[in-house]
Amino acid sequence: MSKTLFGEAAGEPIYDLRIRSKAGAEASILNWGAVIRDLTVPTRTGPQRVVLGLDRLEDYIKHSPHLGALAGRFANRIRNGQFSIDGEAYQLETNFLGKHSLHGGASGFGRRPWQIAAHDDSSVTLTCVSRDGDGGYPGTLTTTLIYRFLEPAILRTEMTAVCDRPTIINLALHSYFNLDGSDDILDHQLQLESDFISVVDPELIPTGEIRHVADTPYDFRSLRPIWFQGADGGVFHYDQNFMLRTRSGSLRLAATAKLGRNGLTLQVFTTEPCIQFYDAKNLNVPVPGLGMKRLAPRAGFCLEPQNVPDSPNHAHFPDPVLRPTQIYRQITDYRFS
Fold it and tell me: What pLDDT was estimated at residue 229?
């Protein structure tokens, strides 16, 4: 266990908090954005870094596309930044294409300091209090996030949140994975426990339609290469929400990523109803990442457990409203073997 000053943001000290498993998995957690800055796991040939990260806090503040951060209050997109609860309309900050809300706005959970509640050899507990009206959201929302190692190489994330008036919530972890540190992730394989996607329009906002993945580039029902070549010869781009086929609320397998070259496998287990797969085609960070890695298009991939994007505006999507009598809960595991 170690705690090192990493910088200062919004007048608050930001720390690099190190945790590890007995088997040798190690993680670096920042209390800025609840970021997983670094994650290494043991392999047959030694420790392997499996996420993208940055060396300086200034680089996270200026350049990070949510690298390793927790996106919220509402991860992903809300059309026109608008929704209603019990007949009352709300307008959020619009920070995507100048008219939609993305990841909670410009000062969402992934772009602000969190408080350190506890820290030991294998876990970190962070808290965030988002006040009524923050980013346009109603009610004060208090969120607790625990990063905890389970043996031998499982990084478990446990999230809870409570509010003092009805609000919406959708938290999603936004790490970019690369299982061998190569320049891109096109040689990785992926399987998703999903039969359906939520269809999006050209601005990546759900239309409300749910479509089966059969005979489409979105069919990851069995393990296959992460890339898909289109009819024009180009590589297909993924930034898509997949509906998980088993009931939400219970911890179950959502995704499997595998790399034959080093035999490393990542399995994502979650209690959430969906998972977003993003192949980071648009990634282009102008500063080097950890290990001087160039963070160029498809240098990593994201598997983000979540609710359906824009779910406040579609009655047939899982309800994202949290009320004062309720507790929001999410558990997501990243299991490496």
Answer: 73
Q: SS3 helix, strand, coil % of the chain, rounded to 5? A: 5, 45, 45
Active site residues: 174, 304
What the block records as the tokens of 224 is: 């296959």
Query: What is d(CA 204, CA 281) in angstroms, rounded to the nearest whole number?
Result: 14
For 166-289, strand residue ranges (E) read 167-168, 172-174, 189-192, 194-200, 206-212, 224-225, 239-244, 252-258, 265-270, 274-278
Residue owning tokens 């993003």: 278
pLDDT in tens, 7-50: 999 999 999 999 999 999 999 999 999 999 999 999 988 899 99
pTM for this predicted structure: 0.96
Instruction: Using 50 as the pLDDT threshold, list the residues of the chain that sit under it.
Output: none
**284-288 CB contacts, 8 Å cutoff, 24+ apart:** 285/54, 285/59, 285/63, 285/64, 285/65, 285/67, 286/63, 287/54, 287/56, 287/59, 287/63, 288/55
Rounded to whole angstroms, the Cα distance separating 270 from 299 reads: 24
Residue 79, SS3? helix
pLDDT digits (tens, 9 = 90+) for 78-105: 999 999 999 999 999 999 999 999 999 9
Rounded Cα distance between 40 and 42, Å, is 7
Six token digits for residue 282 = 């648009």
